Amino acid sequence: MAVKLNERAFEHARGLIHDGKFVFDERDDWSEHQPSAADENRFIETHGFGEYARWHLGVDDDAPEETKGHYKFPYGDFQKVHRCGLLAAESRAGQRKYFDIEVAVAHLHGMLEALHSAARSRR
To answer: What ranges do the domains of the chain cover?
Structure first.
């Protein structure tokens, strides 16, 4: 399997975080917060695979592009970045030794942590 970083998704996630479109949730929340298969199918029907791709930090070159199997490492709910999704992606990328994805996700996670710390210090 040739899985590599989806640069377009990485830039999309950075932009969402920069714009404040994120959820600072708990590590174990991803199983409840990730889109269901039905949610994914509806999103693809409405927006197409091009937009679906922007929500996945990895792509598998061994799987056809117009399939869900081509896209790996989801990080949000098609509206916002979820901290729990980033943590799940970071962990899985590290386990599978996809270092480019792991580094990119760590960067996004760091952005979230910095924004969260800044917001807390302003209170």
So the answer is: 3-121
